[in-house]
Amino acid sequence: MATLRRLQETPRHLLVCEKSNFGHNKSRHKHLVETHYHNYRVSFLIPECGMLSKELKSLVMEIGPYYSVKSLPLHELITHEFIQTFVKKGSFSALTYNASIDEDNAVALLPNGKLILSLDKDTYEETGLQGHPSRCSVRKPMRFVISIDLMDLSLNLDSKKYERISWSFKEKKPLKFDFLLAWHPTGAEESTVRSYFSKYQIQEHQPKVALSTVRELQCPVLKSSSLTGEPEEACSALELLDWLGAVFCNADLNNQPYNFISTYCCPQPSTVIAQACLCTITGFILPEKIQVLLEQLRHYFDEPKLAPWVTLSVQGFADSPVSWRENEHGFQKGGEHLYNFVVFRNQDYWLQMAVGANDDCPP
Asked: What is the pTM of this model?
């Protein structure tokens, strides 16, 4: 009965809201985008807009590519050649897919060169490597996390530490995974991901882009200076986030008595806009691409616009071993880790960051 009660409980979530200005010298917007590594979906909403500008549309269509590779041996990610070719010459990300973070073994390579392994107890013990118990383990540890710094390893490939890790991945416990891969080179591109891993089953993918125009949309009224909202004058950041979720799901917002699917309605005060442009990009999207998109949306108001604000929402992979930076992530009852920017005409912005279950508080 106790287990049944726990399953019926509303999942615990953490939401952090803050406001700042893009021109402020202590603004954290760049750092928070750069350290949210594994992004699955990016959506932006522009009120009073029927069609994207050429600049925005071009940017959206040039987000990719990314790659999927099947049964890639883990030792391929710690070789000297791989580190020199990709890790040291750009931002390389890798993430296991078709793996449930709470049940299966999962691996992530972060752009800073950290290789994160989230392993079940048996696999962890068989590797013979040192790690620490997962914070997502209930009662006795059943999962463990191993962190390997590839940049540090590359300084001395003759060290006992490198030899032990290489021996573990090649001989003691050879591990293979299906990976998603993406690379953002910092200089002239000397190699390509597809050619480097050509001896494995690798495919190139382009993110899926969905563009739509929402007509007669009821929007909450916002004041950039008030995160918590003001009675009868402006809605809060939390109310906006709920409303955005409903818009992205294409839910009805009128709370009609005959609607048995959704009883949600737009928070008050609100205003009806003639049209809004909604764009959703789905794939394996690097932080560098999102940073460029955010900059473009910032400059949307360089010329006079009817829109009072625009939003940019980013969702991370539910089964990623990390959320922000190297903070451990678990699925439990949700698996969400996401953030949302609300960009105002005066270059003020709201930033909302959310995680669930047992994750650390967003940075």
From this structure: 0.90
